[in-house]
Write a structure and sequence with these properties.
This protein has 400 residues and is of the alpha/beta class. It contains ten helices and 21 strands. It has a six-stranded mixed β-sheet with strand order 5-4-6-7-8-9, sandwiched between helices. A five-stranded mixed β-sheet has the order 1-2-3-13-14. It is globular, with a radius of gyration of 21 Å.
C-alpha cells in the first residue's frame, strides 16, 4: 500500500533490510489518475531492493508520461551514512519529520534514522502548519530536521523562534535565498543550505555545521564524502556517487521506456555551478539561465534580488504574497525579464511599486539583468513541495 503524505509511526513505507521493492507516489496524484502503486509497480522493471519515486513536479519527455526514478535501497543507505557523518548524527538525535515521504527528502530522513538508530517524530498532522511544527520540535526535543524553503519562509513570516534543542536544519528541494537564510538565522533556525537531486537520493553537498558560527551566507557547499561533483566549460554540473539512480522509466499509453542516464558513472545534471576541490557553488538551472542582449543571466540571482526589494517594500506581509522571475522572448533584448507577483496588492499601490522596482534594479542589477516589468497574478504554480513550476508560469504569462 502506498503511504500517505507524511510520516506515520504506525506505517513503515520501506523495509530497508529486505530485497522487496516499492513504489512511492503522491496519493492525490494516484487518485486523480485512477490508479494505484501496485499497478504502476507491475509495469516498471522488476528490480530487487529498489524504491521507485516520481521526480519532483517533473513530467516525462513523452506527452502524458511521468518520469519514475529507480533508486536502490543500498544507494539510500550510502547517502544516509554520508549525511549522518556530515551532521555528526547519532542514535541520540531526534529527527522531526516534516516532508512528504514519497519524495527523497522525506524518505532520506527515515534512511538516516535507520542507519544511526535515531528516533523520528511526526512534525505534521494532516498538512503543514508552521506553529505546530515549532511546537512539536520543542515538545519532542528534536535535534535535526529537513525542510524546503517555503517552510522556512512560513517560520520566518510567523516570527517563530527556533526551539533550543534543534541544532541543524537541512534545507533542500530548491535554493534557499540569502535574505530568507539571514531572517531565519536571526530567529535561531540553524539552516544548512544543501544541493541534491531525486536521482542522488537527496543531498550530495551541504553547508557545514561550522557555517552556523559565521554570519555570511554559505554559497560554496562542501561535497559529501560519498560524492564527486565536476563542472564542464559551460559550468554544467555532473555528479558521480554511490547513491546515484539505477535507471529511469516512463509509462505512457501502456508503453514503458527504460534508460540509464549515467555515462561512465557520471550523471549530467540540468544545474549550473562552480566546482572547486571538494566544494560546489550552485548558480541555477540550465533552464533558469537565459541570454539578454547577448549576456547570460541567472533568473535565480535576479529573483533573489527581487526578494530583497520586496522585503524593503514590506510586500512579504501581504496575504498570499509570492514572486518569481521569468524570461519571455523579446525581439530586441532576446529575452525580457518579467517579475510575477501574487498576493493582495491594492491596485492603487501598483504604480508606486513598479516605480520603486525600477529604481531598485538600476541600483542593484547590471543593465542586462534588470526586470522590465511586473505581471500581477492571482497565484504562482508550485509543486506540493513548494517548488516553482517556472515553465508553467512562463507559458501562462506568454499567453497574456
Amino acid at each position: 500500500m502506498t503511504p500517505g503524505f507524511y510520516f506515520d509511526h504506525d506505517r513503515r513505507p520501506v523495509d530497508w533490510d529486505s530485497v522487496s521493492s516499492v513504489v512511492l507516489a503522491n496519493p492525490e496524484w494516484l487518485r486523480r489518475e485512477g490508479t494505484d502503486a501496485r499497478a504502476i509497480e507491475r509495469q516498471l522493471p522488476a528490480l530487487d531492493g529498489h524504491v521507485w519515486v516520481a521526480t519532483s513536479g517533473t513530467s516525462g519527455s513523452t506527452a502524458g508520461a511521468v518520469r519514475w526514478i529507480g533508486l536502490s535501497k543500498h544507494a539510500f543507505l550510502v547517502s544516509a551514512r554520508a549525511v549522518n557523518q556530515h551532521l555528526s548524527a547519532s542514535s541520540s538525535d531526534v529527527w522531526a519529520h516534516a516532508l512528504p515521504i514519497f519524495h527523497v527528502g522525506g524518505l532520506g530522513i527515515l534512511a538516516r534514522a535507520h542507519v544511526s538508530g535515531a528516533r523520528v517524530v511526526a512534525a505534521i498532522e494532516g498538512r503543514w502548519d508552521a506553529a505546530l511544527f515549532a511546537a512539536t520540535v520543542a515538545s519532542s526535543g528534536a535535534t535535526l530536521t529537513a525542510l524546503v524553503p517555503p517552510q522556512v519562509h512560513d517560520l520566518v513570516q510567523a516570527r517563530l523562534p527556533a526551539p533550543p534543542s534543534l541544532r541543524a536544519i537541512v534545507v533542500g528541494g530548491a535554493r534557499l535565498d540569502a535574505a530568507l537564510y539571514r531572517s531565519a538565522r536571526d530567529l535561531g533556525w540553524a539552516c544548512l543550505p544543501s544541493y541534491g537531486l531525486t536521482e542522488t537520493c537527496s543531498q550530495v553537498a551541504t553547508a557545514s555545521i561550522g557555517s552556523l558560527s559565521r554570519d555570511e551566507y554559505p554559497g560554496a557547499l562542501p561535497v559529501l564524502a560519498h560524492a564527486e561533483i565536476r563542472a564542464d566549460e559551460d559550468q554544467r554540473l555532473s555528479i558521480r556517487a554511490e547513491s546515484l539512480l539505477t535507471c529511469a522509466a516512463e509509462i505512457a499509453e501502456g508503453h514503458v521506456r527504460v534508460w540509464d542516464p549515467k555515462r561512465d558513472g557520471w550523471l549530467e545534471t540540468d544545474d549550473l555551478g562552480r566546482a572547486s576541490g571538494r566544494t560546489v557553488e550552485v548558480l541555477g538551472r540550465v533552464a533558469e539561465s537565459v541570454k539578454v542582449l547577448g549576456e547570460m543571466v541567472s533568473l535565480t540571482r535576479v529573483e533573489e534580488q527581487a526578494r530583497i526589494w520586496a522585503g524593503q517594500e514590506g510586500l512579504q506581509a501581504l496575504i498570499g504574497f509570492d514572486l518569481a522571475v521569468v524570461a519571455l522572448p523579446h525581439a530586441r533584448l532576446g529575452h525580457e525579464l518579467v517579475l510575477a507577483i501574487a498576493g493582495a496588492v491594492p491596485p492603487d499601490r501598483r504604480a508606486t511599486i513598479e516605480s520603486s522596482l525600477a529604481s531598485f534594479c538600476r541600483a542593484a542589477l547590471l543593465p542586462y539583468e534588470r526586470i522590465q516589468r511586473i505581471a500581477w497574478a492571482a497565484r504562482l504554480p508550485r509543486t506540493p513541495l513548494g517548488k516553482l513550476q517556472r515553465a508553467a508560469l512562463t507559458a501562462d504569462l506568454s499567453s497574456l
